[in-house]
Write a structure and sequence with these properties.
The complex is a heterodimer. By secondary structure, chain A is of the alpha+beta class. Chain A folds into two domains: about 230 residues, P-loop containing nucleotide triphosphate hydrolases (Rossmann fold), CATH 3.40.50.300; about 120 residues, RNA polymerase II/Efflux pump adaptor protein, barrel-sandwich hybrid domain (OB fold (Dihydrolipoamide Acetyltransferase, E2P)), CATH 2.40.50. Chain A is about 25% helix and about 35% strand. In chain A, a hairpin with a 2-residue loop joins strand 11 and strand 12. By secondary structure, chain B is an all-alpha fold. Chain B folds into two domains: about 35 residues; about 200 residues, MetI-like (MetI-like fold, Orthogonal Bundle), CATH 1.10.3720. Chain B is about 75% helix and about 0% strand. Chain B contains twelve helices and no strands. In chain B, helix 2 packs across helix 12, helix 3 packs across helix 9 and helix 4 crosses helix 6. The two termini of chain B are about 30 Å apart. Classes of the chains: A alpha+beta, B mainly alpha. At the A-B interface, helix 2 and helix 4 of A face helix 7 and helix 8 of B.
Chain lengths: ~350, ~270
Amino acid sequence: MTRSFLSIRAVRKTFGAFVAVHDVTIEVPKGEFLTFLGPSGSGKSTTLYAIAGFQDPTSGDVLLEDKSLLSVPSHKRNIGMVFQRYTLFPNLSVAENVAFPLRVRRRPDAEVKRRVADMLALVRLENFADRHPGALSGGQQQRVALARALAYDPPILLMDEPLSALDKKLRQEIQAEIRRIHRETGVTILYVTHDQEEALHLSDRIALFKEGRIEQIGTGEDLYLRPASEFVAGFIGNSNFLPGEHLETAAGAATVRLADGSIITGLTAAEPFSRGQKVRLMVRPEALSLTPGPASTALQVDIVDTAFFGDRRRVVARTASGDEIDVRPTSDATDPAGAIAGSGRRIYFDPALAFLFPA
Amino acid sequence: MLLDYDRLGWLRAALVGFTAAVAAFLLLPVVFIVLLSFGSSRWLAFPPPGWTLKWYEQLFADSTWIDAALTSARIAAMAAVLAVVIGLFASFALVRGEFRGRQLLRGLLLTPMVLPVVVFAIAIYAFFLRIGLAGTTIGFVIAHTILALPFAIIPITAALEGFDKSIEDAAIVCGASPLQARLRITLPSIRIGIFSAAIFSFLASWDEVVVAIFMASPTLQTLPVKIWGSLRADLSPVVAAASSLLVGLTLCLMIVTALLRRKLSR
């Protein structure tokens, strides 16, 4: 990280006795695509609104290039924002919507015209300039909103769940557009979503929020491959949790006894555990396989159900202690469905994608 | 559905008949007045023995009728403008405000609609007599503005409630000051509500008679007061002609409203 661009310093926001945001601190370098990910009510939107100026933090500071934004009213912060709901101005055409921020800045007509054309080209809606927002689909409206937010070349673009009202296919399409636009413009983007796939797809870094705190911040790979807590592991990607007991840790490799009595070795522990401490073992479904591997990573299970999903299968297995395990082997690497079913099977897992957390 | 219109059977005919009867009951008096205004009988006999335009000639020849109509229009226009402006501010407070007693304030602002008009008329007349506003245009306008206020507030609050505040926030992030955002984005977006408010406020004043009778002076009479006065003095068909014009103008305004609403909402 070079010189600080956007600094969110110990921002705290309370509503009466309820603490929506607990002293959140983030440094955002210029040009980064940072996503605030988390369940609803985790404080991610509140933090974004503090940056936009719609909510004053109870304490803490927000600095852009070392200058505090807090005393600057929203309309003078020069920040771009795309909202969750459709916020195109219904009384103006698409072109006039994109021109609006330039008009209030009293830019010369020729510049406004050129800029509007550039922006509509950027979001590929050149042919819709004269339409009114009511005549656009949801996806088109959000693209116009994006063009409008970028028209005045803001240093930061805030996006508050901009795709949550769209259907899945459209969402993926516009995600690709957003990636391209981020690449082409180099604008710093803070993006709020509760959709982990969207966060993984779009972001340079993800800040995972839980109950007003940042649980972990890092790249998608950091969060997926090195989750700091059970919450992170459960929120990013799919996971199975198996209860057990920690036996010992030697040279960074932990050994546990699971509820069904099987002993598993060679696990990565997120923190030091004491002997006999109750733990939960998290295994990614795609880290499990029916192909034989070392006995130290084998689980004795009954196959409860199998289903075919084209590139993958989904197999539901159950341990002797009654814990259900979701397995997602690639379909070509697996026996035909009939051969999978049955009781007394062994499944094997990759210890690199298994994590140990305190129960 | 239990009451599906297509499955009502014989009830359907009964329903149509009943609806037609209600419509006739509401419309027939108006139709009679209009017919009588063209009838040649001096005594408003029905059916008219012949047809004539002479009552309209007499109406337009009498400057007191014209004056009354102009006075009505002037007062109604001023009351409408005031009611819309006050209604706008009130609606922003009622819809966007977060303060104690908001519902109470809403109720208070809407009381002129439910309060018996004669009670309101006596109260405001007594008050205006004391402060010297009785019989003045200003007094008239104030009284009618109060009566028109609910008719302005109801459509404006409805339009404002249907307008997403995020759109205004978006305008502010775009660099518009809160005032600019409201003037350039919010107001144009709720213009149908504002327009309805103006028309209804105008009409609330235009055909108001009870308060007007109290507020009127020999030199300051609105059209409904003049009609009322003429009815009591002599039952001339000129009154029917004046009433027909009143109905005609109201009808025109309603049609214009409907057309404009359709155009604006597109």
